[in-house]
Task: inverse folding
């Protein structure tokens, strides 16, 4: 019988609301923009901090900070801390914090939750520059986890290439979810990569350490891999952030919207589309109050913040039709409706406030022909 262990987490009563989004590539994906949007809205709706951390792409390179920040500015997602903004926990860069990840790995190796694998030449497949295939990690072939600490360190000192793997126990963990309260997640027994051969952390491990070192109070999760953080938090006795599980993006066919060799997954593909159209498309009503109108209209950033309601978020996958974003007639219709609404609000604001109390304003106010 497997034990279910409870992880410690802050009650949040006196803790500053802080959310960290890590962006790893120059070309932001729709999934990445969606996560950034939810991080931003939750932070703003709760008078918290929205923090940008630059990650590392599949080629081991850091994205250009100015380009990423300009892209977020284009969508109105202003940061409180980050590489260009600065802050008390600088540097906000994975590549500049490699020693921090290495130190955490040493602790995990010491307590037996991680081990060094020296068969990486046989198990690690580099990215094919032509086919652009995702790097594949095969199982450890030589039972490297059975090596003693002294054997492992000796091989490291001899300069043998290696990766570091996490030994995930097969059991369930309790964690706190902002929508569902206290929840549990059972993780299958598996060995997951923590550090690649170039000593760069994998995405979930970088998120784990960054959430702790940047004092994140909440974490927006959209993938099952995000929950691989739980064993690390337990082993190191770190305070667990509250999870916000928004589910992942999927195409109408049900397949994942992968970034590898798929132009439809990148924001740049929709460069001709109005920014609010993209944000409203990715939000799809999840996170807005249920009393909000269901008309085909665009919500501004300020309206999204004012109407934000975390209870309307669920962890089901969001099925999307990316071709709807690329239809010019739909973009024009949505933008035209928003401009008309803004003009109505501007005109109504010119009237006396007492007169407005007797009016029942709605977004479906009839237009004069």
Result:
């Amino acid at each position: 019988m497997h034990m279910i262990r409870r992880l410690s987490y802050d009650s949040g009563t006196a803790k500053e609301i802080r959310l960290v989004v890590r962006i790893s590539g120059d070309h932001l994906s729709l999934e990445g923009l969606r996560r950034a949007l939810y991080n931003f809205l939750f932070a703003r709706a709760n008078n918290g901090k929205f923090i940008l951390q630059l990650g590392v792409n599949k080629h081991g390179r850091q994205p250009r900070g100015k380009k990423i920040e300009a892209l977020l500015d284009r969508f109105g997602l202003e940061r409180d801390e980050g590489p260009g903004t600065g802050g008390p926990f600088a540097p906000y860069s994975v590549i500049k914090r490699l020693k921090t990840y290495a130190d955490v790995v040493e602790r995990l190796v010491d307590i037996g939750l991680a081990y060094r694998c020296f068969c990486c030449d046989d198990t690690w497949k580099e990215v094919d520059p032509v086919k652009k295939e995702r790097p594949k990690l095969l199982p450890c072939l030589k039972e490297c986890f059975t090596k003693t600490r002294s054997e492992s360190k000796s091989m490291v000192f001899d300069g043998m290439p290696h990766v570091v793997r996490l030994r995930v126990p097969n059991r369930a963990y309790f964690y706190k979810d902002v929508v569902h309260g206290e929840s549990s997640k059972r993780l299958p027994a598996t060995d997951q990569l923590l550090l690649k051969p170039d000593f760069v952390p994998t995405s979930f491990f970088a998120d784990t350490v960054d959430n702790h070192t940047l004092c994140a109070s909440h974490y927006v999760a959209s993938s099952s891999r995000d929950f691989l953080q739980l064993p690390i938090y337990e082993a190191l006795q770190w305070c667990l952030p509250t999870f916000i599980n928004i589910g992942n993006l999927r195409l109408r066919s049900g397949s994942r919207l992968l970034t590898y060799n798929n132009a439809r997954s990148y924001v740049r593909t929709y460069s001709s589309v109005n920014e609010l159209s993209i944000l409203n498309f990715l939000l799809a009503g999840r996170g807005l109050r249920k009393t909000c109108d269901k008309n085909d209209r665009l919500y501004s950033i300020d309206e999204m913040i004012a109407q934000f309601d975390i209870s309307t978020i669920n962890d089901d996958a969001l099925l999307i039709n990316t071709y709807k974003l690329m239809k010019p007639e739909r973009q024009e219709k949505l933008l035209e409706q928003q401009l008309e609404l803004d003009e109505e609000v501007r005109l109504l604001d010119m009237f006396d406030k007492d007169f407005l109390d007797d009016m029942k304003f709605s977004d479906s106010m009839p237009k004069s022909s």
Observations:
- Residues 328-348 form the longest helix (21 residues).
